[in-house]
């Protein structure tokens, strides 16, 4: 079945109130739902009531206290139809269902994870609990009573505020929760089990005290301190940056070890993958700390962007996700370094969203059709969705943007809204017409700008010729012209901005050229000297650029652009150019370029004390193998890319050995560990220097020493990565891997790092290692974190291993995807996207990759999730 945006229509019935009683038991949980149903105004009394289900067993059904006769309803596992509901406009429907959480390996609906009952309802998991109008525009007020055996589940949580608890007969007890805010069913949550609690409180801007709780596996309370701190900072930040105050008496977070995604924003009861809650220096890296901070913030921010204002239908997913990602990006930028954060965001966007947008799975930020909504929790909806919100702010300016957000909260609070509603508030506060801009939501594909420049000293005129194009994407061969806000700077020989007296050919405001036509010639008058032009500053638009630029200008910008993002970009572009030239040379054509100048520039950047260490680390990180492949575009031979990249790294290391080595020594951590951004930045610079230095003679000893002397997981994991990836087969590596396993064998989240490192070892032998590791005692096909660490890393981050020329990597991949699918279709479908760029491979690998996709496609009883991904990938 295909769902289409244009088919939206409001439901005939509303569910004003939802009362749920759960009697929890692993194999047979009874759920009694009492729904206050109202026929919508103007709907005929004869309209049937059709509720969604998914694998349900009906036990009992009654309306207004009267049991229904078999002829009065039709219940299948996937639907409940009452063909003649009462003629009264309002009635009470009671539904009792029985479910088996213990056997639920899909991790959707109600399931058990390490003896804890928990739920995941977004997008369509609530229908696995009871029959319901399981769609986001049905807002209902929930009261939830949970009954469980006291010894099995001393803790009983749901959404909203506590509303009573007590003991029952036979060692059972109960708790009642009431959520006064009407909400869609996807935000329902329940947790029950034996968990440890970290308690704190927060006083809101209006002076209300909110009780905060983070619940974790007993004994791990110590590891939740950083998450709690991040939560309190998030709550304060949303008040200051957006005027948003928390609205319930309690806010709870629960960490579970089996979770399909990162986390979930259920009203007042966020549920998290434990890897985004638990951290200390011994077990978590700096990247883990940063992720925890960002995801705690993201889920908290959903309370307003997602929960108070939700989505009319799932086509509007970006309304809450793109906006909330934008908010968490801004939060992290304020908590850490804005410049560094922006570069990291763009690297993520390019690594995940660009290939999606440029391949068979491309879709608009607001899709118009889907077969399986779970497959649309994508980088396009989230990350590009965030970039679209950022562009609105760029176009309107900070103040008008904030006014628009204020109006959005005021106008749509308590509603299920659309992208049109969202755009309208910005039009209303600014008086601007955003209809061309709206194409960013509706049109898939990464726009490209081709730019060339000329300078006429005689006319004192500098000219930019800019041409836009949007490449075709599946189901959209013809594209309309977009409104692209292109931030720019004209940079003089002294590094200062070059003044101009006038401009024509485009609207230029606040350092932004507004591109709206296919071709625009922008003339700057009064420009005496030829400037270097810095384009798409701050990554003002999520586009690709083809700039005809002199290498000298590019090197100049890499050393002098006052916009730190563009300065990083200039260096990165030069590195990419050099890597692509080296790739071509390996395949038998072309000449190497820039090597000496780049090694020299790398040395200068590393030593530049005026730059933050974290920034220097990002600048020194060579484009990844997948980044290079994406920029090459077609005929990809991952082995040649790998060799090209290693050679450039070695050249940089050799040319800077002394300087890198003494800087490495100076950067050693002194004093106690702190996860703050500046300390993390120093560690990241030191670890990238380690990466270079271990390419040189005695690199193995250096890495082994780094490993042995590490006092935190960031350094330990960095050293183990270098050992395993560069010094495979050395006794030091074998010892370090064994020591790590011995020390952390019982800590699943830490072992995930060990699986990741081993799955990432370059070279043809890794497929065998990974296959063997699926039998490791610490591995489980049923746990999403384990699967992603081992199989996910291998297939999406190990270019030379996965793309082994004989296709063995793909064969392993097809087998494993099908194996995971038996338990968890959602995780399998996500895993399967690793082959989305198969058409850009060279012909031999391309044919083998296609075979693997066909193997998956022809498997029996394929789930809707996996079928959708594989069929679109092959189309
Ligand atoms: N809303 C959650 C978040 O962005 C993600 C939930 C995804 N769920 C799913 N079934 N795909 O934090
Ligand atoms: Zn989200």
UniProtKB/TrEMBL annotation:
CDD domains: M1_APN (cd09600). Residues 552-875 form the Peptidase M1 alanyl aminopeptidase C-terminal domain. Residues 445-546 form the Peptidase M1 alanyl aminopeptidase Ig-like fold domain. One of its GO terms (biological process) is proteolysis. Keywords: Aminopeptidase, Hydrolase, Metal-binding, Metalloprotease, Protease, Zinc. It holds the Pfam family DUF3458_C. It catalyses: Release of an N-terminal amino acid, Xaa-|-Yaa- from a peptide, amide or arylamide. Xaa is preferably Ala, but may be most amino acids including Pro (slow action). When a terminal hydrophobic residue is followed by a prolyl residue, the two may be released as an intact Xaa-Pro dipeptide. Its EC number is 3.4.11.2. One of its GO terms (molecular function) is metallopeptidase activity. Its cofactor is Zn(2+). Residues 64-187 form the Aminopeptidase N-like N-terminal domain. Residues 226-437 form the Peptidase M1 membrane alanine aminopeptidase domain. Belongs to the peptidase M1 family. This is Aminopeptidase N.
